[in-house]
Amino acid sequence: NAGDPEVLDAILARATTYCPRSELLWLMGAKERWLRGDVAGARAVLSEAFAANPESEEVVLAAFKLEFENDETERAKVLLARARSQGGGPRVWLKSALLERELGNPAEERSILAEGLSKHGKDQEDGSSWKMHVMLAQNAECAGDLAGARAALERGRRDQPKRWQVWACSAALEERHGSCARARAQLEQARLRVPGEPNLWLAAVRTERRQGNHKQADALMAKALQDCPESGQLWADVIEHAPRPQRKSKSVDALKKCKNDPRVVRAVAGLFAQDAKIEKARSWYDRSVKLDRDDGDAWASYYLFECRAGLGGRGELEEEVARRCEEAQPKHGERWQRIAKEAPRSERGPRDVLRKTALDLEANPIPRP
Q1: Among 224, 231, 348, 365, which lies 20 to 30 A Cα-Cα from 93?
Q2: Is 295 helix (H, G, I), strand (E, B) or coil?
Q3: Is the model's pLDDT at 310 over the cut of 90?
Q4: Which long-range contacts (CB under 8 A, 24 or more apart) does 356-364 make?
Q5: How far is Cα 193 from Cα 166, in angstroms, rounded to an integer?
Q6: At residue 149, does pLDDT exceed 70?
Q7: How far is it, in rounded angstroms, from Cα 142 to Cα 174?
């Protein structure tokens, strides 16, 4: 009976009878049924789970995901509204706002975010709180309300002073709207509040590069490496932007500091590609995705390389990368996550996001703010 889904269902049902308070067992049972296409069965399991664990936020959010992914948006809204009314935590409020954004209801999204932040805006443990500050700023910016976006992020910096993401989003907002001096000042302040954070150094370096201030960018990068000498993302950036005569030595330095960092490995692969050392480049790109299958940016870099290399007629290799990416189902990556969030729901499959991320890599070598 190995691999028999009915046997697995029976085991999990028996387990939840003996351990009805175990959220994990209920969630496993629901997921197994959902993966087999039995949405009604998954819904029934989650209904039983909620009866046994009426306070469980995990069960509510799993039920929400089931309904949302199966286009039962009204059911999803009811579940989240009930959870909010019962004192739901920051994740419930965040998911509620995301649902309204997905449905194209900016006023409802804004209302939920405002109320959610009044209850949970200063929560430090859950990552959902800082995201709500950022979402409120995005909502205001999309409505053309720059002052409102600035106010939302000012409050975010005040309520979540140790979250580098809020500082970086605030600086990016200023840069997008032509206030580079404000962006620089905020990033400087951020580095004092969140010392040793490579993402903040990289944001400052990129701000200067986008303005054409390459000497200032190099000076900032030198300070960044003093502060974060083993940061793979900083060393990868150094390799990608080093003058041609220095690339080999910078690669050696980077590999000494962070030998198996997938971002460094990917940057080295890029150097081999630029030098037309195709097989070496392919080997290093392959190594980078094996080191971190969840990094969508790595898959996009590999795919873009194969698209360029396949111009001579070996298109099957880019298709193979796309197939492997689809199998890996990556969820992370700076560009990948942004592009996946911006895409319509019908275009969020791994292959769609892979192609769009590869195009973004080609069009914007320095990520846009």
Answers
A1: 348
A2: strand
A3: no
A4: 357/296, 357/297, 357/299, 357/300, 357/333, 358/300, 358/301, 358/303, 358/304, 358/307, 360/300, 360/335, 361/297, 361/300, 361/301, 361/304, 361/335, 362/304
A5: 12
A6: yes
A7: 14
Q: Which residues contact 342 (CB under 8 A, 6 or more apart)?
A: none
Residue 281 Cα to chain centre, angstroms: 26
- Length of the chain measured in residues: 369
Please report which confidence band the pLDDT of residue 312 belongs to, taking 50, 70 and 90 as the band edges.
low
AA identity, residue 125: E
- Alpha helices for 177-295 (secondary structure H): 180-193, 198-210, 214-227, 232-241, 247-257, 262-274, 278-291
- Among 167, 164, 241, 162, residue whose Cα is nearest residue 222: 241
* First-to-final CA distance of the chain: 54
CA distance 365 to 231: 20
Query: Looking at residue 13, what is its pLDDT?
Result: 85
pTM over 0.85: yes
Which residue, among 248, 314, 330, has the nearest Cα to 278 in the 3D structure? 314
SS3 317: helix
**Alpha helices (runs of H) in 36-127, residue ranges in sequence order:** 39-52, 57-69, 73-85, 90-102, 106-120
Answer yes or no: are the C-beta atoms of 164 and 197 closer than 8 Å.
yes
Cα–Cα distance for residue pair 317/325, rounded to 1 Å: 12
Provide the pLDDT for residue 23. Answer: 87
Nearest to 294 by CA among 330, 336, 348: 330
Taking a C-beta distance cutoff of 8 angstroms, is the pair 158, 121 a contact? Answer: no
Q: How far apart are CA 74 and CA 151, in angstroms?
A: 32
> For residue 279, which amino acid is it?
E
How much is the CA Rg of the chain, to the nearest whole Å? 23
Block residue for tokens 């592009």: 339
